Amino acid sequence: MKKEINLGVVCLGRKxxxxxAAERIYENIKNDLKKIEKVNYTIIEDLVIEVEEAQTAAKRxxxxxxxxxxxxxxxxxxxxxxxxxxxxxxKPILLWGLNELPYNGGKIRLNSVCGVxxxxxxxxxxxxxxxxxxxxxxxxxxxxxxxxxxxxxxNAKIGIIGYRAKGFFxxxxxxxxxxxxxxxxxxxxxxxxxxEFDVSDKDIAARREQLKEVFDVSDISTxxxxxxxxxxxxxxxxxxxxxxxxxxxRCWPEFADNFGISPCAAMSLLQSEDYILGCEGDVEGTxxxxxxxxxxxxxxxxxxxxxxxxxxxxxxxxxxxVAPCNLWDGSCxxxxxxxxxxxxxxxxxxxxxxxxxxxxxxxxxxxxYRVFLQKGEGIPMEKDLKGTYFKGRFEKNIxxxxxxxxxxxxxHHISVVYGDYTEAFKIFADxxxxxxxx
Length: 438
What we know:
Keywords: Carbohydrate metabolism, Coiled coil, Isomerase. The protein is an alpha/beta fold. The chain has helices at 19-33, 51-62, 80-89, 112-125, 141-154, 175-182, 191-195, 201-214, 222-242, 254-258, 264-271, 283-294, 398-407, 422-432, and strands at 5-12, 39-43, 68-73, 93-97, 131-135, 157-161, 185-189, 246-249, 277-279, 301-309, 314-319, 335-337, 347-351, 356-365, 368-379, 388-394, 414-418, 435-437. The chain folds into two domains: 5-139, Rossmann fold (3-Layer(aba) Sandwich), CATH 3.40.50.1070; 152-437, L-fucose Isomerase, Chain A, domain 2 (3-Layer(aba) Sandwich), CATH 3.40.275. The strands form three sheets. A six-stranded antiparallel barrel has the order 10-11-16-15-14-17. The two termini are 26 Å apart.
């Protein structure tokens, strides 16, 4: 389900052009916008023509706490109007230009695109870079999804339990820099707080039965199953009680030693229920998953580019056994296994479905934020190893993908989802002025 957002909508005009045709087009636009899921609008119903009208519209839109502003150039218009809106609303702007109408008596009727040009120049030269242009009869829904991403991060409360995994220096990040760039607040908790979190016997019993229904549990002990059930209940109630949008967990090396199992299987179960859980204390990877969720991607998961085959042009998108169990391919045996951490791991083991996929990584390096994006197609495979994985062939040759990752120092975790969501992230990066790595 996509992140719900609030948008302001205003249409600008000038009576020296065919403003009456623009009004008719605007009525159709308003009806079309209302069909888009999970968007609440503050719509200025009439064309904004005069400066005073823009000032009144700006105050009304600003009072509604919008996440972004759609400014339609119904016709060419005064240059004052977008600046009056911008200085009060101060949110990312979609500059929307309409297709020109057939000429009427040799006169240009709308001159809408020139209005977009005027507005973009005024915004750029006044220091605003948070605008994006859309020309056509329909709104660019990728821009709307980019605003969902921005809103999801700005309103996020992300927890990290423990720290990053031992030796994974590349998963380190600057918390206040992350706050400056995204608006997300990160709260730290100790592992012991989760291990000792109190849950009811009823909750544990329900999770135990659920695990037995979803997984083949014949290869783990009753004690291990009980621990997975207990941890599933603990993580769910911990996240809910703290009001967390997402949680990154230092899942090794202490977990198996001190709790008795690793959290992989519990995380697999909960992620299938739309909990955003990042492994190995990877906060930026967890942010990436949260952003994927904001645009409606189903149950994102973290994976490594593993077992890259340069000759056959594919990579295994693998992790030790934490992917959401709802992504099982439906053919192989879906099971829990204790191969990891000297028999104390308890991971989910299954091949994931083969379908179109896209990957994302929000990644910081030396104070700069970047967005890594790729997409490809899954290739059916047998269950030949432990963990959760699928074979992926990218649109670009795997040699090129690997060179891009290595030469840009992108961290080794990527958020993976089924479907292509890359365009919204390119627009988001443009709004944020982050570098796009493809």
